[in-house]
Amino acid sequence: MSRKAIALCLLWSVVNPAALAMAYHIWGSEHARLQMATLDVAEIYRLKENQFTALVIKAGATEADRAQAIELARSFGSELSSLTQSLPRECGCLILARAAVIGAGDSIPDLTPEIKRRFGL
C-alpha cells in the first residue's frame, strides 16, 4: 500500500467518526434528551388525608359515612398507584419525587397541580 493510501485511510478513520458524532449532536441528541417532571406525592397524600379526616370527624357523621370514607381511602391508594404507572406514558417523561429534586428551580415541570385537579383536591 502506498503512503498516500495509508494517509487517506487514517484521515478517513478520524474524519468519519467525528462527522457522525457532530451529526448526532446537531440532529439526533435533541430528540434523545430525557424529559423529566416532578410530582409531590407527599402533598397529594396530605391533602387527601385531610379530606378523609374531615369526612370522618364531621358533626353528625354516621357509621355508613365513616365506612364510605375508609373505602374512599382504600380506592385512593390503588388509583394513585395506577396513576404513577400510567403518568410517565402520558407525559412521555421520567417522573421524579419532588422531595428528591434539589435546586432545579422552575426548570423541571411540576405535575402536582394537574394530579390534584384529577383527584379533586
Using brief descriptors, characterize the structure shown.
mainly alpha, 121 residues, Protein Binding, DinI Protein, Chain A, rod-shaped
Describe this structure in words.
The protein is mostly helical. The chain folds into two domains: 1-33; 34-118, Protein Binding, DinI Protein, Chain A. It has helices at 3-32, 41-57, 63-91, 112-118; strands at residues 36-39, 94-97. Strands 1-2 form a two-stranded parallel ribbon. The longest helix has 30 residues, at 3-32. The N and C termini lie far apart (76 Å). The model has no long low-confidence stretch (mean pLDDT 80).
Secondary-structure topology with pairs:
Elements: H1 3-32, E1 36-39, H2 41-57, H3 63-91, E2 94-97, H4 112-118
Parallel strand pairs: 1-2
Helix pairs in contact: 2-3
Summarize the entry for a quick read.
This protein has 121 residues and is mainly alpha-helical. It contains four helices and two strands.
**Main sheet summary:** 2 strands, parallel
Global structural class: mainly alpha
Number of strands: 2
The span between the termini is 76 Å
Secondary-structure element pattern, one letter each: HEHHEH
Report the mean per-residue pLDDT as an integer: 80
In CATH, what is the class of the largest domain? Answer: Alpha Beta
So what's the overall shape? rod-shaped
Count of helical stretches: 4
Using the 3D structure, state the CATH architecture of the largest domain: 2-Layer Sandwich
CATH fold call of the largest domain:
Protein Binding, DinI Protein, Chain A
Question: What ranges have pLDDT less than 50 throughout 5 or more consecutive residues?
Answer: none
Give the tally of structural domains. Answer: 2
